[in-house]
Hints:
Elements: H1 12-18, E1 25-31, H2 37-51, E2 55-60, H3 65-74, E3 84-88, H4 96-100, E4 104-106, H5 113-130, E5 136-141, H6 143-149, H7 152-169, E6 172-178, H8 184-191, E7 196-203, E8 206-213, E9 224-229, E10 232-238, H9 252-263, H10 271-289, H11 299-309, H12 313-325, H13 328-348, H14 358-377, H15 380-405, H16 415-431, E11 447-460, E12 466-476, E13 481-487, E14 490-497, E15 503-508, H17 514-528
Parallel strand pairs: 1-6, 1-7, 2-3, 2-5, 3-4, 5-6
Antiparallel strand pairs: 7-8, 8-9, 9-10, 11-12, 12-13, 13-14, 14-15
Helix pairs in contact: 5-7, 9-10, 9-13, 10-11, 10-14, 11-15, 13-14, 14-15
Amino acid sequence: MKTMNDYKLGIKDLDNAIEGIKGGSNILLIGPPLCGKEYILYHIMHHGAAINENAIINVTTRETATHILEWFKKNNLNLPLDRVGIIDCVTKTPSDEVVMNENIKIVSSSGGLTGIGLKISQFFGEFFIKKKIQKNQLYINSLSTFLMESNAQTVFRFLHVITKRIKSIGGLGIYLIDGGMHDEQEIATLRQLFDGIIEIESEKDKNFLRIRVVGLTSEPTSWFEYEIEGTKVKIIGTSSPSLTNTPNPKLTPLSRKAKFFMARSEIPECKPLSDTINSAGEIFYKFTANENLDFEHLNTEFNIFNKIINISEQDKEHIAAVREQTNLRSKLKNVTENFHLLETATFLTNFGDYQTRRKSILSAIVTIRNACKWGISGLNSDHDKLVESIHETIKEIDILKNITSKSSLKPVIDEEFQKKQHNNKEKFRYISGRPNEGLTKIKLGYEEIISITDSYSTYTSEDGKRYSLDLIRTRSDTGNKRYVFKIDTIYVAGVLIDRNNNVIGSYVESFLNEAETLEKLFSTIKKDS
């Protein structure tokens, strides 16, 4: 007979606080980027398989199965392979070695939820029925990828089946999702399926971890401060995170856009590149989200940059293998497009008193762009350009640090820059479908209206008034297409794309939520294509 503490996480303080986890439980693990979620997941996996002798099934949409197994081997964490199964949604052209590996099952796409469900059932059949292993643990990393490739209702139906299966066999399911990148309604819908939640929050360079499992604890546990020490999750005390970053009133809209575009730019297939892009993105976010800059806490990002500057031949070979075996190139092209829009938004933003931050922020975007370029090509010359842009980013931050320490200095006004910024604003107004505003024109050629959809979506103003957003689709004789939202007769947002659906530019009026508005337009473009 199973007891109330069938499963443990292998993190002593947490296990003591919740007195173990009941068999049949499904837990959501949610936290921001770069907080160590994957390490926590791997720690729990290893503890379950090697220490508790449970069967482990891992669905990976971020790293190849081969890389995961190599990571455990490299860190001297021996997994009992007769009780380990990995469902790989990343590898596109598996080698003969992967095909012959009975621990790995390949699914061509993380959007193919039916195929993933079938592979999970096959592993359950092998471990629970054939090998009579009574305790089975399922890990899905990550639901965020599912939600990017399928709608929330489809993901909900898939998880409804999987979580019921976990309950029926008395297993344990842990499902990772990225905080801050999904609609609150989506998260609320999915949370119904879970018995508990592991929450992670960050404050400067500190991470806090807490867990609540319904039925075992009447209240959430204390916040536990932790650090990743090698491959171990080490609790170093209890605390309550204040999470009181002072918002930068001028740049808050830009920091929201940064979060939005970072969420759209996941490249889990390749950790070295992903870390570099995320670190540059974090610099951008911290410089726009916080009024008072904390330069001391940028060391984490700088350390990651140093790893790319001094990258090992082994990591270079890993990137080359991932480039050939996965859709890494197309993912990186998508990242480049997303951050091109963020770069444009940065360029069009009036920084006011925070003008001195602009160069540091834009240099971080150049680092992201060069990381993508090197990841796509693999050329040493492109790696050199990336290293050069990393050095430039660090240099600009050092300059800003010196300027910030001398509070008497006033921001320098760059008239040429302001003129260029004004011209770009006029261009992007035109992209949104407002050619009568401003002097600058973009030649589209002859343009025809494909369709007009009245009340396609809605906008609710701050005073609670609800407005209908009409959608206009147009196409020019050059092949460019435009998707425009209007309220009554006013054009308020638009995206211009070329014949291959590459984004040329976008524009959203300031009173709208740019992230939400662009998401609606991108979703429409995706459906049409």
